[in-house]
Amino acid sequence: MADPKSFIALLPDNWQTMPFEPFREGVEICHLWQGGPDVALLRYAAGASVPRHRHAGLEMIVVLSGSQSDDNGRYPTGSVLFNPTGTVHSVWSEDGCTVLIQWEKPVEFID
Fold first, then answer.
1. Would you say 75 and 81 are in contact if contact means Cβ atoms under 8 Å apart?
2. pTM for the whole structure
3. Per-residue DSSP letter, 2
4. What is the pLDDT of residues 11-59, one digit of tens each?
5. pLDDT for the residue numbered 111
6. How far apart are the first and last CA of the chain?
7. I want to staple 89 with a disulfide (CB 3.0 to 4.6 A). Which of 70, 76, 80, 108 is the partner?
8. CATH class for the region spanning 47-111
9. Got the DSSP string for 12-53?
């Protein structure tokens, strides 16, 4: 069993001091919890995107700054999104954004 882990005062702004590392071109990640479900911060540079993919498990996103877009719309700061198992979409950020994301299983890239 994993030990409990906490991030004191992560919100509203202390997430900005967390250590990020490269994830995909234009997207950085800060892993908060690994081992399923996984939880991380993703930071998108302006114009960055993630290719079309299918969700193998539930994904939940909270937009902390900027805005994130997908095939269904544009989501400004404060938005909460749920992408259930089987949903397919591409993701991008025109102006850059940081999101808190939790996913049950890795996605399957289809493009």
1. yes
2. 0.94
3. P
4. 888 999 999 999 999 999 999 999 889 999 999 999 999 999 999 999 9
5. 67
6. 37
7. 70
8. mainly beta
9. TTGGGGS--EEEETTEEEEEEE-SSSEEEEEEEPTT-EEEEE
The residue type found at 49 is S
Token digits of residue 24: 């995909």
Please report, as a single letter, which amino acid is at residue 63. Answer: V
Task: Check pLDDT > 90 for residue 2.
Answer: no
For residue 88, give both structure tokens: 């397919």
Compute the average pLDDT of residues 46-73. 97
Task: Match 């940081």 to its residue by tokens.
Answer: 98
Alpha-carbon span 54 to 70, nearest angstrom: 13
101/111 Cα distance (integer angstroms): 22
